[in-house]
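pasting for the record
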Amino acid sequence: MKRIQYFTLILCTLSLAACNIFKKPSTEKNTEGTMKSNVITDRKWKLVELEGKPVADKINGKEPFILLQKSDSRYSASGGCNGLGGSFTLMDNGRIKFSQGMSTMMACENMEIENGLNKALVAADNYSLSGDDLTLNKARMAPLARFKAVK
């Protein structure tokens, strides 16, 4: 009887240890042999599409972007006019939650991108990452916003 219990215990331990084998690494090598990051934090992301529409490189003379800081789970962003900021939470399975925080209150000529970005951040509940492309999504609907990593 004890033999069966020991065998079962060993089998369970080996099964649990094997699960760790299939974890994805946080970095991988690309074709040039350099390391490519699979993380979204501590990288500046340029806004390239909002609600399915392309976004210009400069809005009101500024580049629209988002930066997610891992150290304090805070984000800073701009839609081309005001500075936006707040906190974010990353969860398993590519889920993300942004909390609306501070914003400067300047009035600019073109506020549509900024207002759309702010709404997208509040609405987003998940993200997907493909190379240097980051997409913020709501459920399984069309992407709210697309970003490109700034090198």
